[in-house]
Amino acid sequence: MGNLKKKIVSCMLAVMCFVPWLNVSTCESAEVLNWKVGDESVKVPAEVLVLLLNAAQAQADNDHLTELDYVEEGVERFPNEAIFYYMRAGLYPLPGIDKKEKVMENLDKAIELNPDFIRAYYYRGERYIYTKEYDKALADFNKAIELKPDSVYSYYMRACVYHKMKEYDSAITDYSKVIELAPDRSDFERFERARLYFTQGKYDDAIRDCNVLIQNNKETRGSREENNSDVKGVRMLIGPYGLYYSTDDYDEEHKDYNRRFLDSRSSLSKVYILRGKNYYAQGKYREALADGKEVIAQKPKSKAAKELIEKAEAALKSK
User: Fold this and answer.
1) Is the dihedral of CA 212, 217, 220, 225 positive or negative?
2) Positions of the TPR repeats (predicted)?
3) pLDDT of the residue at 34
C-alpha cells in the first residue's frame, strides 16, 4: 500500500509540472512535499496534497467559501499541520466569512506548530500593528528577519513599527536597510526617511533624499504608465483584506508598490512639498517658493503648496 501511495503522488507531481499556477515545488521524498506559500516553501505531508490543490483551485476561481471548506477539512483531518491554520487565518477576515476575531488564534497555532513559518510572522506582526500592540509586532518582525535576513519586506514593516513607536533613529536605520537591499525599488522608504530627517532637523539629508526621488521620477517617467490615484500606504502592499493565503512574493509586492509610488502625482507633489519645507527651514525661501509653484503647476488646488508659497513670499518680502 505504501508503494502504491508513492506512485500516485509521483504521478500527480508529474501532471502538476504542466500546470503553471499550481504552487508545489520539488519534494524531498514521496512522503513530504515543499508547498510554496508565496516566496516560502513549507514542508507538508503528501497526504494533504489533494486538499491543498482543491483549496488553490478554489482560490484561483475566487471562490473563498469553497476554499474555506477545504481548509476547515484540513484542520479537522490534519490538526498538526500549520499550513491549514495559516490559510484559515487569511480567509477569516474576508467578506462573507468575517471571523476576524479568530485570526490571531489561528496564527498563534500556525507558529506553535511551525516556529519557522516566516509568512505567519509577517501576518501576525501586521495584525499587531493594527491593534497598536507595537512591542508584539516588533518581536514578530525581529523573528522574521532572524529567519530571512535579506527580507526587504521585514525591514520595511519593522521600520513602520519603529516609526509608529516614534523611535525615529531605529526607523531610519531600517528604511536605510531597505534602500541598501533594494536600491532600485525603495522610493517609498526614501520618502519616509526624508520625512524623519525633516522631523529631526537634518535638512540637508532630507533634501538629498528628495532630490533622488525627483530625479528617479524624471528618469523613469516615460517608461511607466501614468497613475493619478493616491498611494494609500501599506495596505496596497498586501491587498484590501490583509496578508492572506497567496501565491505572491511579498518582496515582489513591495517592488510593485514602489514602482507605483512616484507614478502618483499626489506622491510626487508630497516630495516637492517636503523639499520646500526643508528649504524654508534653512532660510532658502526662493527654493521653497519654486517647489511650491512646481506643485501648483500640477495640482492647482493644493492647500499645502499654497501655504508654502504664502510663507515663502512673506519671508522674502520681510528680508
Assistant:
1) positive
2) 118-151, 152-185, 269-302
3) 82
Residues 122-160: tens digit of each pLDDT? 999 999 998 999 999 999 999 999 999 999 989 999 999
Per-residue buried b or exposed e for 2-22, using 16+ beta carbons within 10 Å of the residue's own CB = eeeeeeebeeebeebeeeeeb
Interacting residues of 204 by C-beta distance below 8 A, sequence separation 6+: none
Judge: domain 1-115, CATH 2.60.120.560: no
The pLDDT value recorded for residue 96 is: 80
User: Are the beta carbons of 125 and 44 closer than 8 angstroms?
Assistant: no
Kindly list the distances between the CA atom of residue 120 and the CA atoms of 24, 243, 253, 268, in Å, as whole numbers in the listed order: 19, 9, 17, 34
Please report which confidence band the pLDDT of residue 267 belongs to, taking 50, 70 and 90 as the band edges.
confident
So what CATH class is 118-263?
mainly alpha
Q: What is the C-alpha separation between 139 and 122, in angstroms, rounded?
A: 11
Strands (E), the chain: 24-27, 32-37, 40-45
Return all residues near 211 (Cβ < 8 A) that are at least 6 apart.
Answer: 275
Domains 1-115 and 118-263 equal at CATH topology level:
yes
Domain ranges of the chain: 1-115, 118-263, 266-319
Q: How many residues does the chain have?
A: 319
